[in-house]
């Protein structure tokens, strides 16, 4: 369809990129971006763009991606546990300052003929436009006005974003145990003299450290927490301070909507959906939404048909990523329970936490890490055998006559209230061994492995996890990552993805 006028609410990555792509596709259309903040004012530090997202951006708009890459900083990834370090290659992963990313997107939008209006916050109903693209973020006023069937789920853990005035060599995941509990940082470089430090903890640690008492008003940062965390992470900060920018503790908000459009208004980016930052997905989802929405607007005869096409194309990918992100969030919220693992085995646990990276694929790209982990697991010299799954399972299949209490696990959250009851009942029974069983589908098996990890840690019994023969790779990853002691390969075949 040929559009006359399009209004975009929100000048973040989703809104700016959609505006540029739409103007390139329909030069006669008037496209205006309305951003409530001033042009040179933004919040946050760095964002990451992985190789897969970059390939999609290149196909959609090579000129913009060229400038994003030029402003970005490539880096690998490390995990540092008490000075023991495991490093993973991360080809083409880049960090870029949010300010730089927005500057690139603003320049390219204006170059295409988009008009940018800053310091204004109109409502969708007040705009004269054929279509209103609502890209006004996780706190979207457009979404909250109703019509989209929105719901928001809060995570259990707490996190805050801050920065530091130097560039780390690589991205680093680092837990630090303190007298109050464990804090963990996800930190990465995004400029020659800047790094992001995202820091997480659980509620008991947060309260024990008295970080729940800070009073933060307006745009101020939580300076008491920044001072405390500067001491916690002083080794990783190399003598630098932590930098705040509206820095305060939050719980992650997972946004879902039953509908992404209502009338002439359509949601994209965080306004429509969010996925936990540990998957690195916010900017990715926003810009990929923009690509799909503009393609649908260009291909369909009217807005309702375009919105339906956009949602049909994007919703499966978004929901898959949201499920991966949910699993990743639960893993990070329970992170302190597994810091006893050697760093290489902890890296295996991290890489397989959401079920989207098979153990053999990780071994192909990071043989040193996987080889060391396999050596630790089996008590042999580091190695990556050619028959990796068979090698792992060979001595860890539970005998059929093992005397074990059976736990039939049918639940969604291995750290939720239902799981608490399962763990408490198992602890009260005090068995020598537990056999965790359940449906054969892959999502159920992944949840079973996570529950088994809790049972190993909190009950202290030998834990067997049963799974179907076609999911032997997941069972092997569960063994190496410390989620299970033994496995049972039995029953019908499983099916389905991790999402």
UniProtKB/TrEMBL annotation:
<keyword id="KW-0520">NAD</keyword>
<keyword id="KW-0503">Monooxygenase</keyword>
<feature type="domain" description="FAD-binding">
    <location>
        <begin position="126"/>
        <end position="322"/>
    </location>
</feature>
<dbReference type="GO" id="GO:0004497">
    <property type="term" value="F:monooxygenase activity"/>
</dbReference>
<dbReference type="InterPro" id="IPR036188">
    <property type="entry name" value="FAD/NAD-bd_sf"/>
</dbReference>
<protein>
    <submittedName>
        <fullName>FAD-dependent monooxygenase</fullName>
    </submittedName>
</protein>
<dbReference type="InterPro" id="IPR002938">
    <property type="entry name" value="FAD-bd"/>
</dbReference>
<dbReference type="InterPro" id="IPR050631">
    <property type="entry name" value="PheA/TfdB_FAD_monoxygenase"/>
</dbReference>
<keyword id="KW-0560">Oxidoreductase</keyword>
<dbReference type="Pfam" id="PF01494">
    <property type="entry name" value="FAD_binding_3"/>
</dbReference>
């Amino acid at each position: 369809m040929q559009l006359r006028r399009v209004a975009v609410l929100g000048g973040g990555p989703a809104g700016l990129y959609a505006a540029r792509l739409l103007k390139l596709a329909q030069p006669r259309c008037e496209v205006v971006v309305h951003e409530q903040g001033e042009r040179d004012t933004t919040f946050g530090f760095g964002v990451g763009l992985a190789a897969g997202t970059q390939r999609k951006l290149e196909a959609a708009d090579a000129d913009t991606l060229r400038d994003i890459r030029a402003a970005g900083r490539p880096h690998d990834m490390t995990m540092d546990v008490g000075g023991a370090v495991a490093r993973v290659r991360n080809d083409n992963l880049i960090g870029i300052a949010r300010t730089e990313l927005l500057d690139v997107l603003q320049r390219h939008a204006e170059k295409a003929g988009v008009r940018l209006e800053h310091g204004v916050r109109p409502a969708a109903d007040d705009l004269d436009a054929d279509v209103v693209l609502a890209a006004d973020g996780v706190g979207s006023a457009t979404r909250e006005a109703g019509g989209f069937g929105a719901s928001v789920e809060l995570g259990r853990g707490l996190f805050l974003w801050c920065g530091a005035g130097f560039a780390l060599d690589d991205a680093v995941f680092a837990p630090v145990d303190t007298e109050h509990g464990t804090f963990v940082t996800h930190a990465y470089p995004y400029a020659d003299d800047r790094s992001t430090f995202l820091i997480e903890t659980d509620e008991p640690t947060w309260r024990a450290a008295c970080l729940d008492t800070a009073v933060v008003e307006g745009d101020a940062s939580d300076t008491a927490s920044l001072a405390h965390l500067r001491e916690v992470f002083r080794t990783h900060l190399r003598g630098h301070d932590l930098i705040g920018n509206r820095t305060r503790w939050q719980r992650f908000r997972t946004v879902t909507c039953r509908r992404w459009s209502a009338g002439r208004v359509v949601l994209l980016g965080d306004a429509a959906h969010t996925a936990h930052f540990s998957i690195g997905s916010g900017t990715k989802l926003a810009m990929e939404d923009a690509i799909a929405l503009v393609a649908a607007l260009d291909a369909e005869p009217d807005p309702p048909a375009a919105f339906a096409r956009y949602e049909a194309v994007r919703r499966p990918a978004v929901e898959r990523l949201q499920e991966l992100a949910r699993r990743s969030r639960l893993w990070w919220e329970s992170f302190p329970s597994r810091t006893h693992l050697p760093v290489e085995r902890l890296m295996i646990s991290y890489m397989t936490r959401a079920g989207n990276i098979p153990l053999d694929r990780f071994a192909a790209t990071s043989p040193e890490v996987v080889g060391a982990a396999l050596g630790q697991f089996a008590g042999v010299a580091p190695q990556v055998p050619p028959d990796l799954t068979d090698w792992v399972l060979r001595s860890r299949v539970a005998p059929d006559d093992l005397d074990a209490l059976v736990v039939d696990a049918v639940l969604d959250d291995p750290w939720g209230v239902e799981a608490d009851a399962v763990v408490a009942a198992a602890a009260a029974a005090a068995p020598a061994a537990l056999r965790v069983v359940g449906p054969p589908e892959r999502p159920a098996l992944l949840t079973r492995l996570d529950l088994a990890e809790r049972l190993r840690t909190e009950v202290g019994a030998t834990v067997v996890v049963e799974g179907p023969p076609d999911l032997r790779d997941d069972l092997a990853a569960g063994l190496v990552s410390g989620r299970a002691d033994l496995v049972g390969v039995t029953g019908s075949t499983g099916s389905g993805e991790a999402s």
